[in-house]
Amino acid sequence: MESDHRPNPDAILERIRNEEVKSSRGQLRVFFGMCPGVGKTYAMLKSAATKRQAGARVVVGIVETHGRADTEAALAGFEIIPRRAWVTGTSQLGEMDLDRILELKPELVLVDELAHTNAPGSRHPKRYQDVQEILNAGIHVYTTLNVQHLESRADLVYQISGVPVRETVPDRFLEQASAIELIDLPPEELLGRMKAGKIYAGERADRAQENFFKLEKITALRELALRFTAERVDADLLERMQSGGIAGPWNAGERLLVAVSYSPSSARLIRSTRRMAQLLGAPWIALYVESEAKLESADHEMLMKNLNLARELGAEVMTTRERSISKALRRVASERNVTQIVMGRPDRRMFRDLFSGGNLLDLLTQETSEVDIHVIRQKRKPIYRGFHLAWPDWTSPFLSYLKTFLYLVACGFVYYVFRHFTNYQTIGFLLLLALLPVAFLAGLGPILFGAALSALIWNYFFIPPTLTFAISEFEDVMMIVAYFAVALTAGLLASRIRRQEADLALREKRANLLYRLIQKIADVRTEREIAEMGSQGIQEVLPCRAVVLGVSQKKLSPTPIGGGDPLDDKDFAVAVWSFEQGKRAGWKTDTLVSAKCLCVPLPGRSGGLGALVLFPDDLQRSLSVEQENLIDTIAGHLATALEREQFESASRKNEIYERSEKLHQALLNSVSHELRTPLTTLVGASSLLSKPGTESDHRQALLNDIRQASARLHHTIENLLDMSRISAGALVLKREFFDLGDFARSVVNRYSDTFGDRKIEWVVPDSGRELYLRADEKLLEHAFLNLLVNAHRYSPPDEPIQVRLEEEGARLRLCVRDFGPGVPDTELKKIFEPFHRVHPSADSGGVGLGLSIVKSIVEAHDGSVQAANRNPGAEFTLEFASETLPPEVLR
Q1: β-sheet bridge partners, residue 374
Q2: Which of 409-413, 521-525, 688-692, 885-889 has the weakest average pLDDT?
Q3: CA torsion, ordered 216, 221, 226, 227, to nearest 10 deg
Q4: Which of 201-205, 432-436, 632-636, 840-844 is predicted least confidently?
Q5: 36: preceding bond cis by omega (within 30 degrees)
Q6: Which residue has the higher pLDDT, 652 or 415?
Q7: What is the dihedral of CA 260, 262, 263, 264, to 10 degrees?
Q8: Dist. CA 304–CA 581, nearest whole Å
Q9: Beta bridge partners of 867
Q10: Partners of 616 in the beta sheet?
Q11: Strand pairing of 316-321 and 348-349?
């Protein structure tokens, strides 16, 4: 192997970005096991105890001991954050107090059972989302997880155990874990713990032994856990080796590589590698090494067939540009930690093998001692090929020849002027030196032309006898031969350098293109934006029009994502075939070759996500291997982005569903309370009134109770109807001019019975002039009344309600202040949300709609409402734009 193992710059850049992200967030450590009872929680507590003894502040967010004595003993001594109580129906649940953890901001928090589903009404529906917020706050987390809760393994677990898995954690969440520690236990020992009652007790243990805890099922789950951990470790090792430039391979896990070419025998190599990889359960790579030689049309088609075959069989297809195939194989094997290379028996070429040190097999076996080489037998004998000289490209533009001619003629003229100061041999060397820059500025043709021209100039003008082509000295003849030897050598070296520069430029262009595309796709969030970014990326690779088709009801849609004209029937039929079969189809493929489009499927974990359809500008041209791979790479990133958006959309829908359930439950609880209380008063008072002999004073008090209960019931129903109209968008304003001061006093007078003996304190502007407002008086009355009722409920009986009118410039303010306990600062931003109550357990009643209705009515009038704490009490301010009465109203 070569000693120069330079790190991949793309891998270094990616690792730097990942490290920057990780440095700003907390680290996640997962204690991973095959099933309950292997000791994950116990191991987590022991590891956390070591951190605590080292001086770190460790708190227990939530840990489930399930009554296990050893776990309860390990939990002793930890700082435990009390659980937050959630009432659901008739039951009360205890959930992790996320707000308290974020407030304390410890160094490490312990969170058991990562896949747990939170109680309805929690901030996040899943516990792993709580953990994500904790990590984003820079707090480290230890957590536990069983293999059956992995989203990618849930179906396999169901097949093994027959028990459906309802709580899962996305695999992408575990990708951010800094460490995954496998907690393993032999199945026999685990079953012994189960029988001893150390995992479950009573009937639960009996049911578990009858269903889940069987030796064959536990063994299968153990294999799943071991395989997942091995895959994670292998991925971490490969990432560190690539980014650190570590020479591989390290045979920690098998990875195969097969060299693919345009030879018909490559298909056999690909199938053999697929069988070997399947037997080993190992990933495999199909590598094509592209040289400077241009392929014939038939060879290019055969190469595409071989690469497509490798893709269909599940290989990771790679291409690289390199002059030496053996160097390319060694480099890729080192970068990707390949342990086995599969190749066919190479043919022999006499002179090439002689000067290069042997054929491809000889070079690999001589220099690649860390990698196993598998040579697949062939039906034919090796072919002994004769001498084949690969002629370089002689073609160069005419301008290069002209510049070479003028440059050397100028050099010859200068040397001719100073010929008397030196001998002709020195001038010969000077002309030879003047020839060298041409090699780095022009192609091989101009450099050989320059060699001939330099020889002629030296011979004719400087070698005695001058002005003749006669040469008498042997040294002069050798000098002329040296012109051509130096020119040819310098030209070949310069040509190789230029090819390497072109290869590096091509790699950099591809890396930059993919980096920009991935960055843009990561920044967008809608399917339309993702499709547009993918189409733009394809159009940078190939002159074509690209569209992305999505999926509707598990079927491919003919209308492109983001709109546009649907595909015609023929093109859509090609896209449907490609989507259903998961293979390319159409232009320049083996399937439906007459189509004028190329269709590339977009596969996802849970099914097809759509299809990428390309309409090339030139149907006669062929795709290069580089373009084929870029299209596949872009399609892969496009599919990942679409799947990410689907997951996020599903998560948003779940959050909306959880929020809807919360609102529904709050509405039922609040409305039932608000309706039951006045109805109970009405039924009780009417029953007492119906009894004979009720005294007149008592009768009057009962009538007052009935009136107040009826007013409260009427107010609740009005709020519900208003909220219904607001939600349906049926709120219609009937604007009229009225004086804001008269309006406020009339509302207080009409509803004076609602406030009883409560004093209303008025604060009005000193100017005494009328404050006119153009608004819907009835709706604004409802909003103002809600503020008054709210102030009445939360004020002590002997304290007044203050109503203040203000005018500032072109703005009018109507303020209602109570002198009660005020609003907690954390609740000020939520106080106008529907069904939100600051004190839900208070006896003051209310559905939690009043302030939300106030906000909706005021904003419908282009106004604003604010809540602020005063000392004492709270104040609500309605602000509107004042208007001048038009002349017709003044008349």
Answers
A1: 342
A2: 885-889
A3: 100
A4: 840-844
A5: no
A6: 415
A7: 100
A8: 19
A9: 876
A10: 544
A11: unpaired
